[in-house]
TrEMBL record:
It catalyses: prephenate + H(+) = 3-phenylpyruvate + CO2 + H2O. The lineage of its organism: Bacteria, Pseudomonadati, Planctomycetota, Planctomycetia, Pirellulales. This is prephenate dehydratase. The keyword Cell membrane does not apply. Gene3D superfamilies: 3.30.70.260, Chorismate mutase, Periplasmic binding protein-like II.
């Protein structure tokens, strides 16, 4: 950052001089903050470059030979800086990238376009981003209507301190994408869940192609853009980004293929009056333990909307149960159910509460 030339500022502060000083200060401030924002976007895990920028600006002011040196100018600076920063700081939302995975599409559907999207390389990294605070929210696929649960998300929920604060059911329409013709395809790449959702179509239409699992549908699209023998199973939006042809559309085996995503954040959702609550528990390994737990929900007349069993790694024969019911812990019957469940289970974690979302196409 070049030092501001003292010769450009007169010693007598007139309104004209002050206006000029303001403009110069603002220009320097903008330059610093913009550089800091760009650096932070490129390397979010690195030090707080915005803070570094503020310190640099303050030093600059302290060294300034202008008419308004000292605390008064520092105060003006601080105000300018904080206004700039407030405008620059968007809500950050992490998702399994690169751009235009279905997780990204779910994030756009839930948050709109005005947030800052943070693509990361795995579902585990989405949880990490929220836990470390590099993103306020994350989107993770929980379950699919054709293929069932998404193991990486359940694993993350069982270990993470992040809370579910929203749900996004998204219709999933897969396309076969590539740069060549259907006859050029030797390999079909996609996320295992996407390949599984299209397995009948693929074995019928491309029986000789090798099927290769990759980190995400959009990663497969990126690969297909570099090799005409590779086709990707991915979204139509991913085709546009990588300039791919849509070789076949809507290739999922079930026409009404839906994936339900969880929005994760640091705190659960507030009561809206039409909520669901998710939890994970381990019941004692003894006859009737699970039936006793189910009886709690029957007694409190709480409707269950989701249940999954999940083996506990390294503890053969022991299971975690994920469960979701209609209601919010601030309501009487859910509160009673949770208190009883606490007594009956070896471990209980309330994963969060969220407004019950409609499936909108
Ligand atoms: O790879 C993507 O596009 C994702 O967002 C992940 C994912 C998943 O794992 O379920 C999400 C939705 C579809 O079911 C297919 C893939």
């Amino acid at each position: 950052m070049p030092k501001k030339k003292s010769s450009s500022i007169e010693r007598v502060p007139t309104p004209k001089h002050l206006a000029k000083l303001d403009r110069e200060i603002l220009a320097l401030l903008n330059e610093r903050v913009e550089k800091a924002i760009a650096r932070k976007a490129a390397k979010p895990e690195e030090s707080d470059t915005l803070k570094d920028a503020r310190e640099a600006i303050e030093t600059l002011v302290a060294e300034s030979k202008g008419p308004l040196g000292g605390e008064a100018v520092q105060a003006v600076f601080r105000e300018l800086y904080s206004g700039q920063r407030a405008a620059a700081q968007k809500t950050r939302v992490a998702f399994l990238g690169p751009d235009f995975t279905f997780s990204h599409l779910a994030a756009i559907k839930h948050f709109g376009q005005s947030v800052e999207f943070v693509p990361v390389s795995s579902i585990a990294a989405v949880f990490e981003s929220v836990e470390r605070g590099t993103a306020e929210y994350g989107l993770v696929p929980l379950e699919n209507s054709t293929d069932g649960r998404v193991t990486d998300a359940l694993d993350g929920l069982s270990k993470s301190t992040a809370k579910i604060c929203g749900e996004v059911p998204l219709p999933i329409r897969h396309c076969l994408l590539g740069i060549g013709a259907r006859g050029d395809i030797r390999r079909v790449c996609s996320k295992p869940q996407a390949l599984s959702q299209c397995r009948n179509w693929l074995s019928k239409h491309l029986p000789e192609a090798e099927v290769t699992p990759v980190a995400s549908t959009a990663e497969a699209a990126r690969m297909a853009g570099a090799d005409r023998t590779i086709a990707a199973v991915a979204s139509a939006e991913a085709a546009a980004v990588h300039e791919l042809k849509v070789i076949a559309r809507s290739i999922q085996d079930q026409a009404d293929n839906v994936t339900r995503f969880a929005v994760i954040g640091v705190s659960p959702g507030e009561k809206t009056g039409n909520d669901k609550t998710a939890l994970v528990f381990e019941a004692p390994h003894e006859p009737g333990a699970l039936a006793d737990v189910m009886a709690i929900f029957k007694k409190q007349r709480l409707n269950l909307t989701w249940i999954e069993s999940f083996p506990i790694p390294g503890a053969r024969g022991r299971y975690l149960f994920f469960l979701e019911f209609q209601g919010h812990p601030s309501e009487l019957r859910p509160r009673r159910a949770l208190a009883s469940l606490e007594k009956k289970s070896l471990r209980l974690t309330v994963l969060g509460s969220y407004a019950q979302a409609e499936l909108i196409d």
